[in-house]
Amino acid sequence: MAEQWTEVGSSATETLDVDCDVCIGVKRKAAQTCVTCLASFCETHIQPHKQSEALKRHRLEEPTSNLQQKLCPNHRIMLQLYCRTDQTCVCLLCVAVKHKDHELVEMETERVAKQAQMDVKRKEIESSIWKKQRQVALTIAAIEELRRSAQREIQECEKTFTSVFQSIQRLRSDVTVLIRNYEQSEVRKAEELIQQLEKEIEEQKRNISMMAELSQTDDHIDFLQKFSSVQDLPIDGDTPSIPADRHLFPGSVRMDLCSLKKYLNTMSSLEFVEMRQTDACPLSLDANTVNGSLRISEENTMVKSNTVKAHYPIHPDRFERWPQVLCREALFGRRYYWEVKWSGEHADIGVAYNGICRKSGDSKCLLGGNDKSWSLVCSGSRYSVRHNGVDTVISAPSSQTVGVYLDWHAGTLSFYSISDTLTLLYRFHTSFTQPLYPGFRVTGSVTICQLN
Predict the structure, then answer these.
(1) What H or E segment, with its residue span, contains residue 182?
(2) Staple 33 to which of 40, 323, 329, 361, CB 3.0 to 4.6 Å?
(3) pLDDT at 347
Protein backbone atom coordinates (compact mmCIF):
# COMPACT_ATOMS: atom_id res chain seq x y z
CA MET A 1 0.00 0.00 0.00
CA ALA A 2 2.85 2.38 0.87
CA GLU A 3 4.45 1.63 -2.52
CA GLN A 4 1.16 2.33 -4.31
CA TRP A 5 0.83 5.69 -2.57
CA THR A 6 4.43 6.47 -3.48
CA GLU A 7 3.75 5.70 -7.15
CA VAL A 8 0.61 7.83 -7.19
CA GLY A 9 2.39 10.69 -5.52
CA SER A 10 5.35 10.48 -7.86
CA SER A 11 3.13 10.46 -10.96
CA ALA A 12 1.60 13.75 -9.89
CA THR A 13 4.98 15.40 -9.76
CA GLU A 14 6.05 13.85 -13.08
CA THR A 15 3.44 15.83 -15.09
CA LEU A 16 5.84 18.73 -15.27
CA ASP A 17 8.59 16.54 -16.72
CA VAL A 18 6.67 14.66 -19.47
CA ASP A 19 8.17 15.27 -22.92
CA CYS A 20 6.39 15.25 -26.24
CA ASP A 21 6.79 11.86 -27.96
CA VAL A 22 6.64 13.43 -31.47
CA CYS A 23 9.17 16.26 -31.20
CA ILE A 24 12.52 15.55 -32.86
CA GLY A 25 15.69 16.99 -31.38
CA VAL A 26 14.82 19.36 -28.56
CA LYS A 27 11.63 17.96 -27.06
CA ARG A 28 9.00 20.31 -25.78
CA LYS A 29 6.92 19.56 -22.74
CA ALA A 30 3.77 17.61 -23.34
CA ALA A 31 0.44 19.41 -23.09
CA GLN A 32 -1.72 16.25 -23.00
CA THR A 33 -1.45 12.50 -23.18
CA CYS A 34 -3.65 10.38 -25.47
CA VAL A 35 -4.46 7.11 -23.75
CA THR A 36 -5.74 5.74 -27.07
CA CYS A 37 -2.50 6.45 -28.90
CA LEU A 38 -0.45 5.77 -25.79
CA ALA A 39 1.61 8.89 -26.51
CA SER A 40 2.10 12.39 -25.12
CA PHE A 41 1.93 15.50 -27.34
CA CYS A 42 3.08 19.07 -27.02
CA GLU A 43 0.73 21.95 -27.79
CA THR A 44 1.70 21.85 -31.47
CA HIS A 45 1.44 18.11 -32.03
CA ILE A 46 -1.80 17.74 -30.07
CA GLN A 47 -3.67 19.89 -32.62
CA PRO A 48 -4.62 16.96 -34.94
CA HIS A 49 -6.48 15.39 -32.01
CA LYS A 50 -8.47 18.58 -31.66
CA GLN A 51 -9.13 19.08 -35.36
CA SER A 52 -9.59 15.58 -36.82
CA GLU A 53 -13.02 14.05 -36.28
CA ALA A 54 -11.47 10.58 -36.01
CA LEU A 55 -8.88 11.68 -33.47
CA LYS A 56 -11.40 13.69 -31.47
CA ARG A 57 -12.83 10.36 -30.27
CA HIS A 58 -9.52 9.58 -28.53
CA ARG A 59 -9.37 10.08 -24.79
CA LEU A 60 -7.04 12.86 -23.73
CA GLU A 61 -5.68 13.29 -20.21
CA GLU A 62 -3.21 15.45 -18.34
CA PRO A 63 0.38 14.63 -19.31
CA THR A 64 1.61 11.41 -17.74
CA SER A 65 4.61 9.19 -18.21
CA ASN A 66 2.90 6.23 -16.53
CA LEU A 67 1.31 4.84 -19.67
CA GLN A 68 2.45 1.28 -18.96
CA GLN A 69 0.29 1.32 -15.88
CA LYS A 70 -2.77 1.78 -18.10
CA LEU A 71 -1.98 -1.29 -20.23
CA CYS A 72 -3.24 -4.79 -19.53
CA PRO A 73 -0.17 -6.78 -18.40
CA ASN A 74 -1.50 -9.85 -20.26
CA HIS A 75 -2.64 -8.37 -23.58
CA ARG A 76 -0.73 -5.05 -23.75
CA ILE A 77 -3.85 -3.04 -24.69
CA MET A 78 -5.67 -0.33 -22.74
CA LEU A 79 -7.52 -1.18 -19.55
CA GLN A 80 -11.08 0.02 -20.15
CA LEU A 81 -13.42 -1.66 -17.65
CA TYR A 82 -13.49 -2.58 -13.97
CA CYS A 83 -14.41 -6.08 -12.78
CA ARG A 84 -16.21 -5.80 -9.44
CA THR A 85 -16.18 -9.56 -9.07
CA ASP A 86 -12.37 -9.76 -9.06
CA GLN A 87 -11.79 -6.15 -7.96
CA THR A 88 -9.42 -5.36 -10.83
CA CYS A 89 -9.11 -3.28 -14.01
CA VAL A 90 -9.48 -5.31 -17.24
CA CYS A 91 -9.14 -4.88 -21.00
CA LEU A 92 -11.70 -6.03 -23.57
CA LEU A 93 -9.79 -9.26 -24.23
CA CYS A 94 -9.79 -10.04 -20.51
CA VAL A 95 -13.57 -9.61 -20.53
CA ALA A 96 -13.93 -12.12 -23.33
CA VAL A 97 -11.50 -14.65 -21.82
CA LYS A 98 -11.81 -14.61 -18.01
CA HIS A 99 -14.47 -12.10 -16.96
CA LYS A 100 -17.40 -12.90 -19.27
CA ASP A 101 -20.00 -13.52 -16.55
CA HIS A 102 -18.54 -11.08 -14.02
CA GLU A 103 -19.99 -7.78 -12.92
CA LEU A 104 -18.32 -5.18 -15.13
CA VAL A 105 -18.67 -1.38 -14.97
CA GLU A 106 -17.09 1.66 -16.54
CA MET A 107 -14.01 2.87 -14.71
CA GLU A 108 -15.60 6.28 -14.15
CA THR A 109 -18.59 4.59 -12.51
CA GLU A 110 -16.36 2.53 -10.25
CA ARG A 111 -14.25 5.59 -9.49
CA VAL A 112 -17.36 7.38 -8.20
CA ALA A 113 -18.27 4.39 -6.00
CA LYS A 114 -14.73 3.94 -4.73
CA GLN A 115 -14.40 7.69 -4.18
CA ALA A 116 -17.53 7.57 -2.01
CA GLN A 117 -16.06 4.66 -0.04
CA MET A 118 -12.78 6.52 0.32
CA ASP A 119 -14.61 9.64 1.49
CA VAL A 120 -16.31 7.59 4.21
CA LYS A 121 -12.99 6.01 5.17
CA ARG A 122 -11.31 9.42 5.16
CA LYS A 123 -13.97 10.79 7.49
CA GLU A 124 -13.52 7.80 9.78
CA ILE A 125 -9.76 8.36 9.81
CA GLU A 126 -10.23 12.09 10.39
CA SER A 127 -12.56 11.27 13.28
CA SER A 128 -10.01 8.83 14.66
CA ILE A 129 -7.26 11.44 14.29
CA TRP A 130 -9.43 14.00 16.09
CA LYS A 131 -10.13 11.58 18.94
CA LYS A 132 -6.47 10.67 19.26
CA GLN A 133 -5.38 14.29 19.09
CA ARG A 134 -7.92 15.07 21.80
CA GLN A 135 -6.59 12.14 23.83
CA VAL A 136 -3.04 13.40 23.30
CA ALA A 137 -4.09 16.86 24.46
CA LEU A 138 -5.87 15.44 27.51
CA THR A 139 -2.88 13.22 28.28
CA ILE A 140 -0.48 16.16 27.96
CA ALA A 141 -2.75 18.16 30.27
CA ALA A 142 -2.83 15.23 32.70
CA ILE A 143 0.96 14.99 32.60
CA GLU A 144 1.28 18.71 33.30
CA GLU A 145 -1.19 18.46 36.17
CA LEU A 146 0.67 15.42 37.48
CA ARG A 147 3.94 17.35 37.36
CA ARG A 148 2.36 20.35 39.08
CA SER A 149 0.84 18.07 41.70
CA ALA A 150 4.14 16.28 42.23
CA GLN A 151 5.93 19.62 42.54
CA ARG A 152 3.35 20.80 45.08
CA GLU A 153 3.79 17.59 47.06
CA ILE A 154 7.57 17.94 46.94
CA GLN A 155 7.37 21.54 48.12
CA GLU A 156 4.95 20.57 50.88
CA CYS A 157 7.22 17.72 51.94
CA GLU A 158 10.22 20.05 51.87
CA LYS A 159 8.37 22.50 54.11
CA THR A 160 7.33 19.70 56.44
CA PHE A 161 10.80 18.18 56.62
CA THR A 162 12.37 21.61 57.07
CA SER A 163 9.95 22.33 59.90
CA VAL A 164 10.58 18.92 61.45
CA PHE A 165 14.33 19.35 61.09
CA GLN A 166 14.19 22.81 62.66
CA SER A 167 12.03 21.47 65.50
CA ILE A 168 14.47 18.63 66.07
CA GLN A 169 17.36 21.09 65.99
CA ARG A 170 15.60 23.29 68.56
CA LEU A 171 14.76 20.26 70.66
CA ARG A 172 18.35 19.10 70.41
CA SER A 173 19.58 22.53 71.49
CA ASP A 174 17.06 22.76 74.34
CA VAL A 175 17.86 19.28 75.60
CA THR A 176 21.58 20.00 75.36
CA VAL A 177 21.13 23.22 77.36
CA LEU A 178 18.98 21.36 79.89
CA ILE A 179 21.60 18.66 80.34
CA ARG A 180 24.46 21.19 80.52
CA ASN A 181 22.62 23.28 83.14
CA TYR A 182 21.92 20.19 85.19
CA GLU A 183 25.52 19.12 84.71
CA GLN A 184 26.82 22.48 85.98
CA SER A 185 24.49 22.38 88.97
CA GLU A 186 25.54 18.87 89.90
CA VAL A 187 29.23 19.62 89.28
CA ARG A 188 28.98 22.66 91.57
CA LYS A 189 27.41 20.51 94.28
CA ALA A 190 30.08 17.88 93.77
CA GLU A 191 32.88 20.44 93.96
CA GLU A 192 31.42 21.85 97.20
CA LEU A 193 31.24 18.31 98.53
CA ILE A 194 34.86 17.73 97.56
CA GLN A 195 35.91 20.91 99.40
CA GLN A 196 33.99 19.80 102.47
CA LEU A 197 35.49 16.32 102.35
CA GLU A 198 39.01 17.67 101.87
CA LYS A 199 38.50 20.00 104.86
CA GLU A 200 37.34 17.05 106.97
CA ILE A 201 40.30 14.99 105.78
CA GLU A 202 42.74 17.72 106.86
CA GLU A 203 41.03 17.96 110.24
CA GLN A 204 41.21 14.20 110.72
CA LYS A 205 44.87 14.17 109.69
CA ARG A 206 45.57 16.76 112.40
CA ASN A 207 43.73 14.58 114.90
CA ILE A 208 45.85 11.59 113.89
CA SER A 209 48.99 13.66 114.38
CA MET A 210 47.74 14.75 117.80
CA MET A 211 46.99 11.14 118.77
CA ALA A 212 50.40 10.05 117.55
CA GLU A 213 52.02 12.78 119.63
CA LEU A 214 49.94 11.83 122.68
CA SER A 215 50.91 8.19 122.25
CA GLN A 216 54.58 9.13 122.54
CA THR A 217 54.28 10.87 125.95
CA ASP A 218 55.64 9.14 129.07
CA ASP A 219 53.50 11.29 131.34
CA HIS A 220 50.55 9.08 132.28
CA ILE A 221 48.66 11.88 133.95
CA ASP A 222 48.97 14.10 130.87
CA PHE A 223 47.86 11.18 128.60
CA LEU A 224 44.81 10.41 130.71
CA GLN A 225 43.81 14.04 131.01
CA LYS A 226 43.98 14.55 127.23
CA PHE A 227 42.46 11.16 126.25
CA SER A 228 38.90 12.33 126.81
CA SER A 229 39.32 15.01 124.16
CA VAL A 230 40.70 12.43 121.74
CA GLN A 231 37.89 10.00 122.46
CA ASP A 232 35.26 12.59 121.62
CA LEU A 233 36.72 13.34 118.19
CA PRO A 234 34.13 12.72 115.35
CA ILE A 235 35.04 9.99 112.89
CA ASP A 236 32.35 9.92 110.11
CA GLY A 237 29.22 11.92 109.64
CA ASP A 238 26.47 11.65 107.06
CA THR A 239 28.44 12.57 103.97
CA PRO A 240 26.24 13.33 100.93
CA SER A 241 27.12 11.60 97.67
CA ILE A 242 26.59 12.35 93.99
CA PRO A 243 25.37 9.27 92.05
CA ALA A 244 27.36 8.95 88.82
CA ASP A 245 24.79 6.91 86.89
CA ARG A 246 21.70 9.05 87.38
CA HIS A 247 19.78 10.36 84.34
CA LEU A 248 20.51 13.99 83.67
CA PHE A 249 17.02 14.99 82.53
CA PRO A 250 13.43 14.10 83.47
CA GLY A 251 11.90 10.79 82.48
CA SER A 252 9.13 12.53 80.52
CA VAL A 253 11.71 14.11 78.22
CA ARG A 254 13.39 10.76 77.75
CA MET A 255 10.04 9.17 76.88
CA ASP A 256 9.31 11.92 74.35
CA LEU A 257 12.68 11.32 72.70
CA CYS A 258 12.01 7.58 72.55
CA SER A 259 8.65 8.25 70.91
CA LEU A 260 10.29 10.55 68.39
CA LYS A 261 12.91 7.93 67.59
CA LYS A 262 10.22 5.27 67.13
CA TYR A 263 8.26 7.56 64.80
CA LEU A 264 11.31 8.35 62.70
CA ASN A 265 12.09 4.65 62.46
CA THR A 266 8.70 4.08 60.87
CA MET A 267 9.80 6.34 58.04
CA SER A 268 11.98 3.45 56.89
CA SER A 269 8.76 1.84 55.66
CA LEU A 270 9.01 4.21 52.67
CA GLU A 271 12.15 2.35 51.67
CA PHE A 272 10.16 -0.87 51.98
CA VAL A 273 7.45 0.45 49.63
CA GLU A 274 10.09 1.34 47.04
CA MET A 275 11.74 -2.05 47.47
CA ARG A 276 8.38 -3.81 47.07
CA GLN A 277 7.66 -1.91 43.85
CA THR A 278 11.02 -2.05 42.10
CA ASP A 279 12.41 -5.43 43.17
CA ALA A 280 9.27 -7.60 43.27
CA CYS A 281 10.04 -11.04 41.88
CA PRO A 282 7.33 -13.42 40.58
CA LEU A 283 8.02 -16.99 41.68
CA SER A 284 6.63 -20.40 40.74
CA LEU A 285 7.10 -23.73 42.48
CA ASP A 286 9.13 -26.41 40.71
CA ALA A 287 7.09 -29.63 40.50
CA ASN A 288 10.29 -31.61 39.91
CA THR A 289 11.54 -30.78 43.42
CA VAL A 290 8.39 -31.23 45.53
CA ASN A 291 8.37 -33.98 48.15
CA GLY A 292 5.67 -36.67 47.97
CA SER A 293 4.07 -35.48 51.22
CA LEU A 294 3.28 -32.14 49.60
CA ARG A 295 0.91 -31.04 46.86
CA ILE A 296 1.27 -27.89 44.76
CA SER A 297 -1.53 -25.92 43.08
CA GLU A 298 -2.09 -25.79 39.33
CA GLU A 299 -0.75 -22.22 39.30
CA ASN A 300 2.41 -23.44 41.08
CA THR A 301 2.04 -20.71 43.69
CA MET A 302 0.75 -22.69 46.70
CA VAL A 303 2.07 -25.82 48.42
CA LYS A 304 0.42 -27.68 51.27
CA SER A 305 0.74 -30.88 53.23
CA ASN A 306 -0.91 -33.91 51.66
CA THR A 307 -2.56 -36.53 53.88
CA VAL A 308 -1.94 -39.19 51.24
CA LYS A 309 1.64 -39.54 49.99
CA ALA A 310 1.83 -38.78 46.28
CA HIS A 311 3.93 -40.92 43.96
CA TYR A 312 5.64 -38.33 41.81
CA PRO A 313 7.94 -39.36 38.94
CA ILE A 314 11.52 -40.07 39.96
CA HIS A 315 13.64 -36.98 39.40
CA PRO A 316 17.18 -36.09 40.52
CA ASP A 317 15.98 -32.71 41.84
CA ARG A 318 13.21 -34.12 44.06
CA PHE A 319 13.41 -33.97 47.87
CA GLU A 320 12.93 -37.61 48.89
CA ARG A 321 12.67 -37.39 52.70
CA TRP A 322 11.91 -33.86 53.87
CA PRO A 323 8.62 -32.00 53.00
CA GLN A 324 10.41 -29.36 50.98
CA VAL A 325 10.11 -27.71 47.56
CA LEU A 326 12.16 -25.17 45.60
CA CYS A 327 11.10 -22.56 43.06
CA ARG A 328 12.01 -22.64 39.38
CA GLU A 329 13.58 -19.18 39.30
CA ALA A 330 17.34 -18.85 39.75
CA LEU A 331 18.08 -15.55 41.51
CA PHE A 332 21.43 -14.09 40.60
CA GLY A 333 23.28 -10.81 40.31
CA ARG A 334 20.70 -8.27 41.50
CA ARG A 335 18.03 -7.52 44.13
CA TYR A 336 14.82 -9.52 44.58
CA TYR A 337 11.81 -9.26 46.87
CA TRP A 338 8.94 -11.68 47.45
CA GLU A 339 6.27 -12.37 50.07
CA VAL A 340 4.69 -15.57 51.32
CA LYS A 341 1.77 -16.43 53.58
CA TRP A 342 2.11 -19.50 55.76
CA SER A 343 -0.26 -21.46 57.97
CA GLY A 344 -0.14 -24.62 60.02
CA GLU A 345 2.30 -25.90 62.63
CA HIS A 346 5.36 -24.28 61.13
CA ALA A 347 7.04 -23.31 57.88
CA ASP A 348 10.64 -22.78 56.80
CA ILE A 349 11.16 -19.98 54.29
CA GLY A 350 14.55 -19.58 52.67
CA VAL A 351 16.90 -19.88 49.72
CA ALA A 352 19.33 -22.56 48.60
CA TYR A 353 22.02 -23.26 46.06
CA ASN A 354 21.13 -25.88 43.47
CA GLY A 355 23.59 -28.27 45.11
CA ILE A 356 21.59 -28.68 48.33
CA CYS A 357 21.23 -32.31 49.50
CA ARG A 358 17.87 -33.79 48.45
CA LYS A 359 17.88 -37.55 49.03
CA SER A 360 18.88 -38.09 52.67
CA GLY A 361 16.74 -37.82 55.78
CA ASP A 362 19.69 -36.25 57.58
CA SER A 363 19.16 -32.76 59.01
CA LYS A 364 21.82 -31.51 56.59
CA CYS A 365 19.20 -31.79 53.84
CA LEU A 366 16.98 -29.27 55.61
CA LEU A 367 16.77 -25.67 54.45
CA GLY A 368 19.42 -23.95 56.55
CA GLY A 369 20.82 -27.26 57.75
CA ASN A 370 23.94 -26.88 55.59
CA ASP A 371 26.30 -24.29 54.12
CA LYS A 372 24.29 -24.19 50.88
CA SER A 373 21.06 -22.72 52.28
CA TRP A 374 19.63 -20.09 54.62
CA SER A 375 16.16 -20.13 56.19
CA LEU A 376 13.69 -18.48 58.53
CA VAL A 377 11.80 -20.99 60.70
CA CYS A 378 8.26 -19.77 61.49
CA SER A 379 5.97 -21.20 64.14
CA GLY A 380 2.96 -19.96 66.04
CA SER A 381 5.04 -18.94 69.03
CA ARG A 382 8.43 -17.83 67.72
CA TYR A 383 10.87 -17.24 64.90
CA SER A 384 14.35 -18.56 64.42
CA VAL A 385 16.90 -18.46 61.63
CA ARG A 386 19.09 -21.33 60.51
CA HIS A 387 22.27 -21.65 58.46
CA ASN A 388 24.79 -24.47 58.36
CA GLY A 389 22.83 -26.28 61.07
CA VAL A 390 23.04 -23.40 63.58
CA ASP A 391 19.72 -22.04 64.90
CA THR A 392 19.31 -18.52 66.27
CA VAL A 393 16.08 -17.65 68.09
CA ILE A 394 14.50 -14.27 67.24
CA SER A 395 12.40 -12.34 69.70
CA ALA A 396 9.53 -10.90 67.66
CA PRO A 397 5.73 -11.28 67.47
CA SER A 398 4.69 -13.91 64.94
CA SER A 399 3.02 -12.97 61.65
CA GLN A 400 1.44 -15.11 58.93
CA THR A 401 3.02 -13.00 56.18
CA VAL A 402 6.77 -12.87 55.65
CA GLY A 403 8.71 -10.68 53.22
CA VAL A 404 12.09 -11.80 51.89
CA TYR A 405 14.61 -9.38 50.40
CA LEU A 406 17.71 -10.71 48.64
CA ASP A 407 20.53 -8.42 47.55
CA TRP A 408 22.76 -10.92 45.79
CA HIS A 409 25.67 -8.56 45.10
CA ALA A 410 25.64 -7.08 48.62
CA GLY A 411 25.44 -10.59 50.12
CA THR A 412 22.40 -9.86 52.30
CA LEU A 413 19.26 -11.91 52.87
CA SER A 414 16.62 -10.12 54.96
CA PHE A 415 13.39 -11.44 56.46
CA TYR A 416 10.51 -9.11 57.42
CA SER A 417 7.40 -9.70 59.48
CA ILE A 418 4.49 -8.00 57.72
CA SER A 419 1.34 -7.08 59.62
CA ASP A 420 0.05 -3.65 60.63
CA THR A 421 3.70 -2.70 61.02
CA LEU A 422 6.85 -3.75 59.20
CA THR A 423 9.49 -5.46 61.34
CA LEU A 424 12.94 -6.57 60.26
CA LEU A 425 13.33 -10.03 61.78
CA TYR A 426 16.86 -10.90 60.73
CA ARG A 427 19.47 -10.16 58.09
CA PHE A 428 22.09 -12.66 56.95
CA HIS A 429 25.41 -11.19 55.80
CA THR A 430 27.48 -13.43 53.57
CA SER A 431 29.05 -13.64 50.12
CA PHE A 432 26.88 -15.46 47.59
CA THR A 433 28.74 -17.37 44.88
CA GLN A 434 25.97 -19.16 42.96
CA PRO A 435 22.37 -18.58 41.84
CA LEU A 436 19.87 -19.00 44.67
CA TYR A 437 16.51 -20.79 44.53
CA PRO A 438 13.71 -19.77 46.95
CA GLY A 439 12.43 -22.79 48.87
CA PHE A 440 10.08 -23.92 51.63
CA ARG A 441 9.68 -26.66 54.20
CA VAL A 442 5.98 -27.04 54.88
CA THR A 443 3.84 -28.42 57.68
CA GLY A 444 0.56 -26.82 56.70
CA SER A 445 0.63 -24.55 53.67
CA VAL A 446 2.69 -21.82 52.04
CA THR A 447 1.36 -19.43 49.38
CA ILE A 448 3.53 -17.17 47.23
CA CYS A 449 1.89 -13.73 47.17
CA GLN A 450 1.28 -12.04 43.84
CA LEU A 451 2.73 -8.55 44.18
CA ASN A 452 1.27 -5.80 41.95
Answers:
(1) helix 107-215
(2) 40
(3) 93
